[in-house]
Amino acid sequence: xxxxxxxxxxxxxxxxxxxxxxxxxxxxxxxxxxxxxxxxxxxxxxxxxxxxxxxxxxxxxxxxxxxxxxxxxxxxxxxxxxxxxxxxxxxxxxxxxxxxxxxxxxxxxxxxxxxxxxxxxxxxxxxxxxxxxxxxxxxxxxxxxxxxxxxxxxxxxxxxxxxxxxxxxxxxxxxx
Amino acid sequence: xxxxxxxxxxxxxxxxxxxxxxxxxxxxxxxxxxxxxxxxxxxxxxxxxxxxxxxxxxxxxxxxxxxxxxxxxxxxxxxxxxxxxxxxxxxxxxxxxxxxxxxxxxxxxxxxxxxxx
Lengths: 176, 117
Hints:
The complex is a heterodimer.
Chain A: H1 2-30, E1 46-48, E2 54-56, E3 64-70, H2 75-79, H3 81-90, E4 95-101, H4 106-115, E5 122-124, H5 129-134, E6 139-140, E7 142-146, E8 152-157, H6 165-174
Chain B: H1 2-23, E1 27-31, E2 34-37, H2 43-51, H3 54-61, H4 66-78, H5 82-91, H6 94-106, E3 110-115
Antiparallel strand pairs in B: 1-2, 1-3
Helix pairs in contact in B: 3-6, 4-5
């Protein structure tokens, strides 16, 4: 009789134990911070922009940054520019968009911008030192989220609609 | 019913291909007027990069650790696997990636990216 009641008590606690362990494991997988893993710093860099000035990523510490890698010959890259412009306008002063072109041709970028000026810096990475070496970019477009602390907070491949509710929600999360 | 099933499968495969096409994370290499996706199973790439000895020279010039060199060679020239190559590249340090890029350039290659979509 005593043995039976002990087993009954264990049987009652077992589902709670299993549930708690599952929640912990799920949290550890979904949240690297909880698991103790340090967030990765966005590699700093300095590049010359189409306007002739040099811009550094670290100069924007304290502000949320959208780092967009693109090229004028990449249709998907050009396709997402209108929604990036709309995003820049919507969150002016709160979000910094930085565009990095891997064109390799200053002329191509200047020609593009003369027809379609962008309201954010357009940096040039002709040697792929930033895109290939630092950010391991192999396909375009790709956008990295960098939070106010300079940590990488997201990576999105392919053209995005930056004005969609889904992306707006992600951007607002980044700006917190 | 069969046609409906086939169409559903085709749509699913196309959707997967679009997704994978953007997330395969491979670059394109050019030499002598020929271009190939890195780590593709194309015979032309094998001839250009592996058979010629170019890739071995690229790896020898680079600062990639020996184990990673062996794996990069294996998954490009022996058992091509884009996924494994992607994982290897992303795991390298920026300095190691820079050394591979410079080594490719020294061997007469140009590197470019493929556009998603």
